[in-house]
Design a protein that fits this description.
- The protein is an alpha+beta fold and about 160 residues long.
- It has five helices and nine strands, in the order αβββααββαββββα.
- Helix 4 crosses helix 5 (about 140-155).
Length: about 160
């Protein structure tokens, strides 16, 4: 698995470069090599219907499959409309990096900062006037705590 910048303008060239079969974004964009690295909800939906049909023949549900692979609780995309998006990003990144050394740190599309039990990605939208935040954690309580902390850092000037 590879991580890269969001958006087809970024995803398609990267997928070509690595000869990737598929790319996806949390926002619901799915890119396929066999579809010219273009976004296709219809192709993604068709693939998922085949998965659901196979599971049904096995007497299983899609939710049971998801439960097997789900490792984190997810905040969903949280959007903030701010004048100083860059300053807010830096404030959040600096705060957490100064508290504890991250297990991983990426800065090719905003900041993704990973710790043992949680991570966050904060970036400026490419298409809208928003600062976007996504958090995941191993428990709902930890997720709620971290999302609230980050929201406070973002909205406090």
């Amino acid at each position: 698995m590879y991580m890269w910048k969001v958006g087809r303008a970024n995803a398609a060239p990267r997928l070509r470069e690595i000869n990737g079969l598929y790319g996806g974004e949390y926002a619901g964009h799915y890119y396929f090599r066999d579809f010219f690295y273009s976004d296709s909800g219809i192709l993604a939906g068709s693939i998922m219907l085949n998965v659901v049909a196979k599971l049904k023949r096995q007497g299983r549900t899609l939710s049971s499959l998801i439960d097997e692979i789900a490792a984190y609780q997810n905040s969903g995309e949280i959007n903030f409309r701010l004048d100083d998006k860059r300053g807010a990003m830096e404030r959040v990144k600096d705060h957490y990096v100064s508290l504890e050394k991250p297990a991983a740190f990426y800065d090719f599309d905003g900041y993704r900062v990973e710790y043992q039990d949680w991570w966050f990605n904060i970036r400026m939208s490419n298409t809208e006037p928003y600062l976007r935040l996504l958090c995941e954690a191993t428990s709902k309580d930890l997720l709620d705590t971290k999302a609230a902390e980050i929201t406070k850092l973002i909205t406090t000037t």
